[in-house]
Amino acid sequence: MAGSNLTSSGTRPWRDPRVRAVAFQVVALAAVFWFGYTLFENTLTNMADRGISTGFGFWDEQAGFGIIMSLIPYKETMTYGRTFWVGLLNTVLVSGLGIVIATIIGFIIGVARLSSNWLVAKLAAAYIEIFRNIPLLLQIFFWYFAVLGNVPPPRQSLSAAGAFFLNNRGLYVPAPVTDEGFGYVVAALVVAIVATVVIYRWAKRRQNRTGQPFHTFWTGLGLIVGLPLITYFVAGEPLHWEVPELRGFNFAGGMVMIPEFASLLLALSIYTAAFIAEIVRSGILSVSHGQTEAAAALGLRPGLTLRLVVIPQAMRVIIPPLTSQYLNLTKNSSLATAIGYPDLVAVFMGTTLNQTGQAVEIVAITMAVYLTISLSISLLMNIYNRAVALKER
Amino acid sequence: MPHVPKASLPAPVANLGAVAWLRKNLFSTWYNSLLTLVVGYLLVTNLLPLLQWAFFNASFTGATPDDCTGGGACWVFLQQRLGFFIYGFYPEAARWRIDIGFVLLALVLVPQFIDRFPGRKWLGLFGLTGFPIIAYFLLAGGAFGLEPVPSTKWGGLTLTLTLAYVGIIAALPIGTVLALGRRSEMPIIRGICVVFIEIWRAVPLITVLFMASVMLPLFLPEGVNFEKLLRALIGIILFESAYMAEVVRGGLQAIPKGQYEAGDALGLNYWKKTSLIILPQALKMVIPGIVNTLIALFKDTTLVLIIGLFDILGTVQSTIVDPEWQRVDAEGYLFVAFCFWVFCFGMSRYSQALERKLHTGHENT
Question: Residues of A with CB below 8 A from B27's CB?
Answer without folding.
Answer: none
